[in-house]
Structures are given as C-alpha cells and as structure tokens.
Design a protein that fits this description.
The chain is of the alpha+beta class and about 170 residues long. It is built from six helices and nine strands; from the N terminus they run ααβαβαββαββαβββ. A hairpin with a 6-residue loop joins β3 and β4.
C-alpha cells in the first residue's frame, strides 16, 4: 500500500488530496482533557483535527482511492495520503505499519491534518505518546493564560490540557 503511494506522481497525489480530503474536510475540535475553560480560538486552532465526515464516523481513517487509469482501486489511510501530499519528497517505507508508521501527534486515528502527522521508524515512538495529556495551559478565571507547559515529547503532542489557576497557585 505504502509503496503504491510512492508510485503516484505528485500531481496525482495533489488531485487525490483535493478530491478526497480537502473538498470534504470537517474540522474537529480538540478534546480538552482538563478543566472546562474556553481557550482563545487562536490558541486552539493548531490543535484542531481534520477529517472527512464518513471517516470520523468510522474512526478508522480509511478511504478508497482510484489509482490507475484502468480504475484499479486502493484502500488507503487518509493520513497516509495527507502525509505524502505534505511531504512529496519523503519516500514512505514499503513496510509502513510494520515498524515504521505515520504517527498522530493528536492521538486521533481519523485525523489527516499534516501538522499532526510525523513519520516514525519504530512503532515504540508511536505508542510512547499514549496517555500523554499534551500541552498544559494554566488559565485565570478571566481566561488569560498564566502558564504553559509543553509535554515531554518532541515534537509535542497536539493535545490540550487546561487547568484553572487556583487561589494557592
Ligand atoms: Zn489531529
Ligand atoms: Zn506528549
């Protein structure tokens, strides 16, 4: 599957991305893991995920794409296509999914936002992010950010944790 993506021309990848992902993009709000405090839209924007409606419902991230002129069809993960679209010069390993993988910085398997994706060579780099709360924002009751701490991962996880600044902080 992954090697077939490498065989597609950059132009075809662009076409497929536009037809399958961009034209049907749905923006999904980040899941706030901490206290329920509304953060500023500018702060939240980079944490928003992208999906297409049926993918979000299935939570799988699978799409069908037409590969050849003859109509041969290929099942592909939307985020693999998005990664290749955003990184046309990167050779995606043919063993993708079997060691090397496209890792979700947001932890959401349906997401195909390129800034939420990175290629990792070993599966352990993917699983290392499980359970991470992401970047923590400590916010005053007025909604002002008093403090921000990035998670220990690099690049940092695209998850938001907000905590209300308590009277004793
Ligand atoms: Zn995402
Ligand atoms: Zn993390």
């Amino acid at each position: 599957m992954a090697s077939q993506l490498n065989q597609l021309t950059a132009r075809r990848i662009n076409e497929l991305y536009g037809m399958k992902l961009e034209a049907h993009r749905v923006v999904v709000e980040p899941e706030d893991l901490g206290d329920e405090i509304a953060l500023d839209e500018d702060i939240l924007e980079p944490y928003k995920c992208w999906t297409v409606e049926n993918i979000q419902r299935n939570a799988q991230g699978r799409i069908r794409i037409q590969v050849g002129e003859g109509g041969s069809e290929l099942k592909c993960f939307s985020y693999h296509l998005a990664y290749k679209w955003a990184n046309p010069d990167v050779e995606v390993p043919s063993t993708l999914g079997n060691g090397p993988s496209i890792d979700h910085l947001c932890g959401r398997a349906f997401c195909h936002r390129p800034s939420h994706l990175q290629l990792v060579q070993e599966h352990k780099h993917n699983t290392a992010r499980i359970g991470c709360f992401g970047n923590m924002f400590v916010v005053t009751e007025q909604g002002e950010i008093a403090h921000c701490t990035q998670c220990k991962h690099s690049p940092s996880c695209m998850k938001v944790y907000t905590s209300l600044l308590g009277p004793f902080n």
